[in-house]
Amino acid sequence: MIALWIILAVLVVLIIMIASSYNGLVNLRNQVKNAWAQIDVQLKRRYDLIPNLVETVKGYMAHERQTLEAVTQARNLAQSLASAGVAQRGKAEGELSSALARLLAVVERYPDLKANQNFLALQEELTSTENKISFARQFYNDSVLRYNNKTQMFPTNIVASLFGFKASEFFETASPAEREAPRVSFTQS
User: Fold this and answer.
1) CA 20 to 30 Å from 147, out of 136, 141, 175, 183?
2) Within a domain: residue 34?
């Protein structure tokens, strides 16, 4: 009779451990999804700002058409990949950041534009958004790290494999140029 109670107690403890591990994995997986959604919110904000920035700049930089078109194309590509995987999305966002950096570098040659209040407000808003995107990416990668650690460490790795929990991708940029943040300067040349 005592052996039956011991077996029953071990089974209850085992079921509690499995349930706890499963719930922990679900919690972390949902945190990863939430972190990705936060990146999406900031990227949407960026996508909304870019056309206003381009329109403001157009009047001043008619002969810089190629730079403006590159920003618009990069924005459209990044926006079209909204449901793509993390790697594709990271590459497109890196290209958009590079295009924005080139645009802001070209702006340096236009003192009247740099003094325009609409442009300054948009530039400040874009800088703020870039910072928020950076923080959201960091939060996402931290969430992925916690989730991946949980799915790969004993004993939850057993529960993860039983219930089909797979590792998530980190949000990474592909090239060194994409790793650089757009440079914004308010100094006159």
Assistant:
1) 175
2) yes
Number of domains in the chain: 1
155 preceded by cis ω (within 30°)? yes
The answer to whether the CB of 138 falls within 8 A of the CB of 42 is no
Taking the C-alpha atoms of residue 36 and residue 86, their distance in angstroms, rounded to an integer, is: 9
CATH number of the domain that residue 72 is part of: 1.20.1440.20
C-alpha dihedral (143, 149, 152, 154), degrees to nearest 10 = -130
Of 47, 49, 56, residue with least CA distance to 74 = 47
The secondary structure of 31-71 as a DSSP string is HHHHHHHHHHHHHHHHHHHHHHHHHHHHTT-GGGHHHHHHH
* 189: in domain: no
Amino acid identity of 128? S
Exposed / middle / buried, residue 23 (Cβ in 10 Å: 0-12, 13-18, 19+):
exposed
pTM of this prediction?
Answer: 0.69
